[in-house]
């Protein structure tokens, strides 16, 4: 990534990776509401109600390592680049 900036004429390039833990609500409450905003969620909401809950429960089990007392904690990372032009 540093090379991209340098190739573009930037100098003094520094790349810093930032990580943060984001606390989210429990999967059963969080996921359905967020899915509604995504165009590909049609398949999930087309499932009969009796199949939606098992799908969410399976997702909850897959994320068990992220579980906290209040929901789940997901780690997000990003890169911050600083340079002079």
Number of helices: 4
Largest sheet: 2 strands, antiparallel
The total number of structural domains is 1
| Percentage of β-strand residues | 25-35%
Strand count: 2
Which structural class should the secondary elements be placed in? Answer: alpha+beta
Spell out the helices and strands N to C.
HEHHHE
**Uncertain regions: pLDDT < 50 for 5+ in a row?**
none
Q: Name the helicity range.
A: 40-55%
Q: Give the N-terminus to C-terminus distance in angstroms.
A: 16 Å
The coarse silhouette is elongated
Rg over alpha carbons: 20 Å
Mean of residue pLDDT values: 91
Q: How are the strands ordered across the major sheet?
A: 1-2
Please, could you describe this protein's structure?
It is a single chain. With 85 residues, the protein is an alpha+beta fold. The chain has one domain. It contains four helices and two strands; from the N terminus they run H-E-H-H-H-E. A two-stranded antiparallel sheet has the order 1-2. Helix 2 crosses helix 4 (49-62). The longest helix is centred in the middle third of the chain and has 14 residues, at 49-62. 2% of the residues are buried.
Structural key phrases:
elongated; alpha+beta; single chain; 85 residues; two-stranded antiparallel sheet
Q: Which helices and strands occur, and which strands form pairs?
A:
Layout: H1 2-7, E1 11-24, H2 27-35, H3 42-46, H4 49-62, E2 72-84
Antiparallel strand pairs: 1-2
